[in-house]
Specification:
The chain is of the alpha+beta class and 197 residues long. It is 22% helix and 38% strand. The chain has one domain. A hairpin with a 4-residue loop joins strand 5 and strand 6. The N terminus is likely disordered.
């Protein structure tokens, strides 16, 4: 299952100008480190290429381990993509991070599969380009499902929480296959492909 891990980890080892982590409250200045130019360029391409209204959810199933990784344009979540300029905007980011880290989760696999969240992290990531600034929220859930054979569908509160979000492009990968699903905001749940069972 090396490939899955590389695929999922690949997007999270990026270097950003500013990362507001759900873990830390650090307010240190983010001096631009010019040694990191190449990573910036890579990440800028990713954020520039995001489409407002469209999030990406990667789901990897490996036995009882299920990892979900969400990338959402910040515009969909908080309505702006620049660094916070005042307290109200800082609070908006903090509130979004805590909603994305709700202990119950915001994506709910079939209850019969008996999944629980082991780890959850959320970050607000900014990339300031020469002409445009984009930013996004990056959320990871690591779950254990005691009966993964009964993972048949996935529900979400994401579209209710963040009405500017219109669609999630879901990519599911397991040892026995991979699939993509377009999750429109009017769909309360999606059916998961049978190959993950
Ligand atoms: Zn953007």
């Amino acid at each position: 299952m090396k490939n899955i891990h590389r695929l999922l980890i690949g997007t999270s080892i990026a270097c950003f100008c500013g990362v507001y982590s759900g873990y830390a409250e650090d307010n240190h200045d983010h001096d631009h480190d010019h040694d990191h130019h190449s990573e910036h360029a890579t990440e800028k391409r990713q954020l520039d290429s995001h489409e407002h209204g469209v999030s990406i959810l990667k789901i990897a199933v490996e036995g009882q381990n299920v990892q979900m990784e969400l990338e959402s344009p910040a515009n969909d979540i908080i309505g702006f993509e620049h660094a916070p300029k005042n307290n109200k905007q800082k609070v908006a980011i903090e509130n979004a991070l805590s909603e994305l880290q709700d202990a119950a989760g915001i994506f709910f696999p079939s209850s019969e599969a008996n999944c629980k969240i082991d780890e959850n992290s959320a970050e607000f990531e900014i990339e300031e380009g020469h002409s445009e600034t984009h930013s996004g929220f990056h959320v990871i859930w690591k779950m254990t499902c005691s009966d993964p054979k009964r993972l048949t569908n996935l529900e979400t509160t994401f579209f209710e929480l963040f009405p500017k979000a219109k669609e999630i492009e879901v990519e599911i990968i397991s040892e026995s296959g991979q699939n993509a699903i377009e999750w429109e905001s009017d769909m309360k749940k999606i059916k998961l492909p049978t190959f993950i069972k």
